[in-house]
Amino acid sequence: MRSLIGAKQQKWLLLAPALTVLALISFVPFVKTLWLSFSDSEISALPTVVSFIGLENYIYALTDPDFILSLGRTLYFTFVSVGAEVILGVAVALLLNQQFRGRTLMRALIILPWAIPTIVNAVTWRLIYNPDYGALNSLLMQLGIIGEYRSWLGDPDVAMNMVILADVWKNFPLVAYVALAALQTVPMDMLNAARLEGANAWRRFYKITLPWIIGPLLVIIVLRSVEAFRVFDIIYVMTRGGPANQTKTASFYVYQEYFSYLRSGSGSSYAIIVALISIILIYGYYKAAKRQNGSL
Amino acid sequence: MSDSNSSFISNQVSNPPPGQVSGSTDASQRQQSYNNANRDEAILSIRSLYKSYYDASILQDINLDINSGDFLVLVGPSGCGKSTLLSCIGGLTDVTSGEIYCKGKDISQLDPAKRDIAMVFQSYALFPNMTVAQNIGFGLEVRKVPAAKRTKKIQQVAEILHLEPLLDRTPAQLSGGQRQRVAMGRALVRDPTLFLFDEPLSNLDAKLRLTMRTEIKHLHQRLGGTMVYVTHDQVEAMTLASKIVVLNQGVIQQFGTPDEVYKRPANTFVAEFMGSPAMNLMQAKVLVEAGDLKIQIQREDEPPIIFSEPAATDALRAFANRSVIVGLRPESISDLPARDPQRSHSVDCRIDYLEGIGSDVYATLKIAGGDVVSRLHGDSSVRAGDRQQLHFDLSNISYFDPSSQLRI
Fold it and tell me: What is the pTM for the complete model shown?
């Protein structure tokens, strides 16, 4: 018997509530921001006249060397932190997938860094890096690696990497969990077959295990990359973009333009540019994931 | 005569408890005399192998030798340890104690990669991200066989298994039977010392299973090779094996040719496990009349079945005036006279119910409350409730000790 509405209509009907919510919280602000980015709007206590100025904001943004630099720093932050999170996460997942005493406890403990709010994590790491009484200084001093206490977040050459370290620490458990879940679906027979065929542990990993878990891994890489690209909170708490703007990322730049300098029109154009780059990133990974699935 | 002597036990015979069963392994060990000479000649020798997980004993005192070209089938009910034994041979499971020799060399502590053993898994265990050719050639690639030689070998194996048109496909694009063949190809291409098969046909449908069974049998006959094959299907075991190991609760119940296992089961467990329908087991009494041995099987409301046993061994004579368990296969109780008239004994029986399978009719009779299955000719016109003259073919009769359940 045919139903009263077609399968296609039924799909849209079922999606309607979610789409409505999505439109209200995502689409409306996006359109508003888009409009602002073509205007000379400023945040002001006094009523102001907002006028359309075309691409002026965008031209300004893309010729602003500081903004271009901040984009470069954001990309650096994204690639290094997500790369490290994936390597560390998969390595930890492989360990947690082994049989050993206390495995359940370890699996529970490993999620803790991720369970901590970013702000708390950032404050904690700021304390660890503290130039006067930080644990890192104390540790490296006692190990004889450094001769004197250093200001880790005050040194423009290392500050970004120190923020990345804090971010990796916070986010690798998520990758580890996804990887662990995927690892548990790798058929034991397949690994045993590879063992009997003579493949060593490393070859088993990159020929059998990695291709098997690459799908879920790509999903988490996309998620983490998008998140990392619009990094803000950890920067805000740890360095506020300093020292010498060395940790000033694109989102932080948007924040400053919008809320510190109150140029909401210009700030919106920065935000749109960041969003566009995010979309390109997502698209790239989407293609990669699709190609990967096609070969399976 | 006491009740226990006259009561009929048929299928109610309890499985031998492990303690008594290990007695049987001791006996069979003595028969097999596992010495070093055998060990060095054999392709695979297992000596006093034990495997336990924590307190649970999975395998106990496993001893066996198989020679080049043998097709050894490990058979037994679920959880009997047959897959664990296979896994131990392959090196995927550590042994608790004991040795495994391959061509006279102890491999029990060797890495699986170095054992020169190939295995076909129940789940096929193909690599989904590789083509059929890559799957088959994986072991060669790992062993750094040059590409040209590798391609040639893959081609040869593909030809044998009729996989040539499929070489560029991925496992996801293959049917169950094709995947099974790829899995076998991966094993064949390396030409290993030993092939292991872990229930390779269990995931196939009934018809395909028969085809693949024949194909495996042909492959073995054509290519030689020494195989160890695990199955819970006793028909598979009988048809494929040159030697069978029947396992139960981690203990070898019997190790012999399919014929030996079928005709001369070592104990009541083997008698009931091998063969379908199972061997009929009946409680009987050994009588001595004027020096002749007679076997008496008591029936309810009917005269007892009494036949003489001219071929009685000394062991059976020792049971004079005591009870034994008589084992007769369904095909040994028939409406047709036995081939050897000297060993045929006719009995008038009432048929309780019938199961026709086309070629034959299985007729079930009740003797003192227990069921005995007999195999009648497919054209038999007998109906349930009828009386029928049945011929007991005593040439392959088995006797078991009621207390130890072992063959007399």
Answer: 0.79
